[in-house]
Specification:
Distance between the termini: 33 Å
Helix content: under 10%
Radius of gyration: 26 Å
Largest sheet: 22 strands, antiparallel, barrel
Number of strands: 38
Structural class: mainly beta
Shape: globular
């Protein structure tokens, strides 16, 4: 497990300073965290490189950086700055699955190709984003008060090949983390190291077809790129067809050595069908109508063909970076338009009870949200000298306004027509946040990081689905309410450095999930779900010019004042009260440029329990298990690129492998689901400008379940009362699939020598 490496093949941890704190330039200017500029040299500071540690008078180490930028030093043991590197070779299909490079993070998609996945991390069922703050180039993705789920985050607009790195902070330990940072935060950062044009075409199982064109203009760095991608397919069973188009363009301009402006535009549209859940007893007995009687036909079947969705998303953002004589300023502004419609049916005919005994019309739900988001972010980082060490101060500001129409209708199963509205509301929310943090290093072997964040939320809601008559008499079918709340969030980390390549990091932090506006009363002091989280563990990092290695071993515990669990009748997560969780995480990565090897391994164990109001974070293992949360998770990702010559012609063969194991997940009523095991592989051969490849997902063709649920339902007879006995349901996972690829590299070159 101690095999592991930094995402950058070079200079990732050339100094103890890079291991424990943000690097500073020779002039004392702080390097930008997360995406430092490419550097041709790295000068050791107080915590020197392995060679410099042996010889304090050694000269600065000269290092050639090939293609990737240095990762920021971790702010906590669970702060993973993951440059994708060669691991892009492992088949994943969608950009969101790059998140699984972070240890313990599991995705499960229950809605189809265009539906964002449910996220599980550190004992949390984070839904589609309710407990994981998500950003793309600083732009927030989570949508408050979405009818599909509070904090809904859809990253399917991203072209996977343009994601250069993913930073996942497991836990709320950095003061820059904002709303929804309960289980943690995930930040996507974009780039295209290759210059020139890269065209890719693919075709495979179930008539899946992909076409993409990427362009990195010569004379610009990797921050400037253009890309478009088209994807369509019939899906791996009934009612799973999908189509999508993605466009992304970013232009970066350096006014001088210290000032850079980046402008990013994205455009995305998709439409997809969804099969939804099937009952296990219907599958084993061949009772689902419209499909064959054998197990596979039933396993991939559907009850309701009205399920699916569509999304349109368009965004624009600009970011200005400026390095001054005393510090670094970063400011960004963004705006996003999004229109989403989802249709699902989890229970069949249960909810539409008729007083006259007539058949129920169906439990299908239609969730619609049209939203506009505008906002800005800014931070300033400076440093000062004290006790012969350099210390950093960071202050930041976040402002965001969302306005949206949010609707939940019920659909007739027979024809998909809405027959009732559960809610119809127009909402405006404002989030203003400010934070300040200090990194203080009083001794060579001690770094203390701490800070405070304050978030305020203002809610304005117009309910347009109010009865026209109440106890007093007639009234307008509308009502208005407002609410306001403030959430303080202190956070801190203490790092001990016993060896130049080893650190022991202990963190404590308070995070917040804002209120779903649907549950607020007029004039209410808006309540928040608070999380107190702690972790401790060892972080080992070391690098040479051709090899980088990293290993981490962490233990964590978390308490949430108001957790959420999936409810089949609501079709979304609903409150269940407080919860506690604890676990361990191990992670390793090794990158060797001489061998063309990049391998990452991870293992995690977590337990989560619904707890009582008077319990504390130390009351572990008390109460019923929180359902659906994976306990044991192991993953291996590996890529090797091997160049060789035949008859004077230069060729390169690439082999990639991804292994995932998820042990039995707990279900309601003390039940357990089936384990998940998947093998993904790819082989590619490059000659001159052409690269041919074949990718396989679920190579062993296991009948994995994306999700397993346990509740009463009635999909058979709308006129009969539903049984109150809970039954096992599942959503079929992807079977064995193959995809053939052809990629053409037209004058592609790396941005640096």
């Amino acid at each position: 497990m101690l095999l592991g490496g930094l995402a950058t093949p070079v200079a990732e941890a050339l100094s103890q300073e890079a291991v424990q704190q943000e690097p500073s330039s020779p002039e004392g200017k702080p390097e930008p965290e997360g995406k430092p500029e490419p550097a041709a040299s790295v000068e050791p500071a107080e915590g020197k490189a392995a060679e410099a540690a042996a010889d304090p008078a050694s000269e600065p180490i000269q290092v050639a950086v090939n293609g990737s930028r240095r990762a920021a030093a971790p702010k906590a043991g669970g702060d993973f700055d993951l440059v994708i590197g060669q691991l892009i070779d492992v088949p994943r299909g969608r950009a969101e699955r790059l998140l699984t490079l972070a240890p313990g993070l599991v995705l499960a998609n229950h809605g189809g190709e265009g539906h964002p996945s449910v996220i599980f991390l550190r004992g949390f069922d984070a839904g589609e984003g309710q407990d994981l703050e998500m950003r793309v180039e600083g732009v927030p993705i989570n949508e408050p008060s979405h009818p599909h789920g509070h904090g809904y985050a859809d990253t399917n607009f991203l072209i996977p090949a343009l994601v250069e790195r993913v930073r996942v902070i497991e836990g709320p330990f950095d003061v820059s983390q904002g709303d929804f940072a309960v289980a943690g935060s995930a930040m996507f950062e974009l780039g295209l190291p290759a210059r020139g044009v890269i065209a890719r075409a693919a075709y495979g199982s179930f008539h899946r077809a992909e076409l993409s064109v990427l362009w990195g203009p010569h004379g610009f760095d990797e921050d400037t790129f253009f890309g478009v991608e088209l994807v369509r397919g019939d899906g791996f069973g009934r009612n799973r067809a999908h189509q999508a188009v993605r466009g992304m363009a970013q232009i970066s301009h350096s006014f001088d050595d210290d000032t850079k402006l980046k402008v990013l535009g994205t455009s995305y549209a998709t439409r997809f069908d969804s099969a939804g859940v099937v009952r296990a007893d219907d599958v084993t007995r061949g009772r689902i109508p419209g499909c064959g009687a054998d197990f596979d036909d039933q396993f991939f079947c559907t009850y309701d063909a009205n399920q699916g969705g569509a999304t349109q998303r368009h965004g624009l953002s600009a970011t200005l970076d400026h390095k001054g004589s005393l510090g670094k300023l970063e400011a960004s502004a963004f705006t996003t338009y999004k229109d989403t419609r989802m249709r699902e049916n989890f229970t069949g005919f249960v909810l539409d009870r008729q007083s006259d005994g007539s058949p129920q019309r169906g439990d299908g739900s239609e969730q619609i949200q049209e939203s506009i988001t505008v906002g800005m972010r800014g931070k300033y980082v400076t440093n000062f000298e004290l006790f012969d060490h350099t210390h950093d101060v960071e202050v930041g500001l976040v402002a965001r306004y969302d306005t949206f129409d949010s609707i939940l209708n019920r659909l007739r199963t027979a024809d998909g027509v809405p027959y009732r509205s559960d809610f119809d509301r127009q909402v405006g929310t404002t989030n203003l946040g400010a934070y300040g943090g200090l990194r203080f290093q009083p001794l060579d072997f001690l770094v203390v990081r701490g800070g405070l964040r304050l978030d305020s939320f203002v809610f304005g809601l117009e309910d347009r689905n109010v009865p026209e008559v109440d106890r007093t008499g007639e009234r307008l079918p509308t009502s208005r309410r407002e609410a306001f709340g403030i959430a303080p969030q202190p956070r801190g980390t203490v790092t001990l450095i016993p060896l130049p390549w080893l650190s022991w990091m202990t963190s404590l932090g308070l995070g917040t999930r804002s209120s779903d506006s649907q549950a607020l009363s007029d004039g209410e002091s808006a309540p928040f779900a608070n999380v107190i989280a702690t972790e401790t563990g060892l972080v080992a990092r070391e690098a040479t010019p051709s090899r980088a290695a990293e290993a981490r071993l962490l233990a964590f515990a978390t308490r949430v004042t108001s957790d959420l669990v999936f409810d089949e009748q609501a079709g979304r997560n609903v409150p269940v009260g407080p919860s506690n969780r604890y676990g361990v995480t191990a992670f390793g990565r090794l990158t060797d440029t001489a061998l063309g090897l990049d391998v990452a391994t991870s293992f995690s164990f977590s337990e989560a329990f619904i707890s009582a109001e008077d319990e504390t974070i130390f009351d572990v293992g008390v109460g019923p298990r929180l359902p659906f949360v994976p306990r044991w998770v192991a993953r291996v990702d590996l890529s090797e690129r091997y160049p060789f010559e035949i008859l004077g012609e230069k060729l390169r063969v690439t082999g990639a492998l991804g292994l995932l194991f998820v042990d039995q997940r707990p279900l309601p009523l003390e039940q357990f689901g089936a384990p998940v095991f998947s093998v993904d592989a790819a082989v590619k051969l490059k000659w001159r400008l052409a690269e041919l490849g074949i990718e396989a997902q679920n190579l062993l063709d296991r009948r994995n379940r994306e999700a397993e649920l346990y509740y009463p339902s009635n999909f058979a007879e709308p006129s009969a009362p539903a049984s109150q006995l809970a039954a096992r349901h599942w959503i079929a996972g992807q079977p064995q699939t193959f995809l053939g690829t052809l990629t053409l590299h037209f004058d592609a070159r790396e941005t640096s020598p």
